[in-house]
Amino acid sequence: MNPLLLIQTVADETEVIAEVAQNEMNYFEMAKAGGLIMIPLVVLSVVAVYIFIERYFAIKKASSEDLSFMNKIKEYIHEGKIDSAYSLCQHVDNPVSRMIEKGISRIGRPLQDVNTAIENVGNLEISRLEKGLPTLATVAGGAPMIGFLGTVIGMIKAFFDMANAGNNINVSLLSSGIYTAMVTTVTGLVVGIIAYFAYNFLVARVEKVVFKLEARTMEFMDLLNEPAS
Fold first, then answer.
1. 108 phi and psi, to 5 degrees?
2. pTM of the model
3. 98, 102, 107, 112: CA torsion to nearest 10
4. Are the C-beta atoms of residues 159 and 169 closer than 8 Å to each other?
5. Least confident of 53-57, 91-95, 165-169, 206-210
6. Up-side HSE of residue 102: CA atoms within 13 Å toward CB?
7. Cβ distance 154 to 179 under 8 Å?
8. Could you tell me where the DSSP H helices lie in the chain?
9. CA 204 to chain centre
10. Taking a C-beta distance cutoff of 8 angstroms, is the pair 105, 82 a contact?
11. Residues 98-109 pLDDT 10s
12. What is the pLDDT of residues 154-168, one digit of tens each?
């Protein structure tokens, strides 16, 4: 093969590749094309990520439990070491220990009062775990709506440009409004979908913690009923 022809072929291919690379989609420029609607969408995405990370570790900490904790509580209660059981609860930082601590502080009162006191603490613990989840649910529902608002704004802009152009309509004239419409729609859906899955994931984790709290409550109440059996 002629070396000059080979060099020319390589040069042509390089030029084509450079041209394709130059015309590749620039995501930052696309985001800018979304207009002001992108600002609340970006804020919502940051809020969603923050809530998910913060709640994930909080729920993970709440779900961690020393398997020997309840065995020690049973041992202390059977031996009549109420103060030792109470002290153990104070040195363990999780929802189960705080519920059992409240129950131990009510020992000697009617069992219904003890159970009510434990349930009240449990409700407070669950409320703490669910902090931020309503906001995450709002992001999941609100982000797509904001994206669709951007769609409407973009289409209005495209039709406005079309009306003002008269007979000089071309694709580049309409591209700005269409970019706004499409980019905001995609961004809103992406943020909403991610927030939706994150919300349901966290809710499922909270439900597991709730089940564990209910199980430990029943275990403690059965422990208090043992002497009477």
1. 110, -20
2. 0.77
3. -110
4. no
5. 165-169
6. 20
7. yes
8. 3-22, 27-33, 38-63, 69-78, 82-90, 95-105, 111-129, 133-165, 171-225
9. 12
10. no
11. 999 999 888 888
12. 887 777 777 676 666
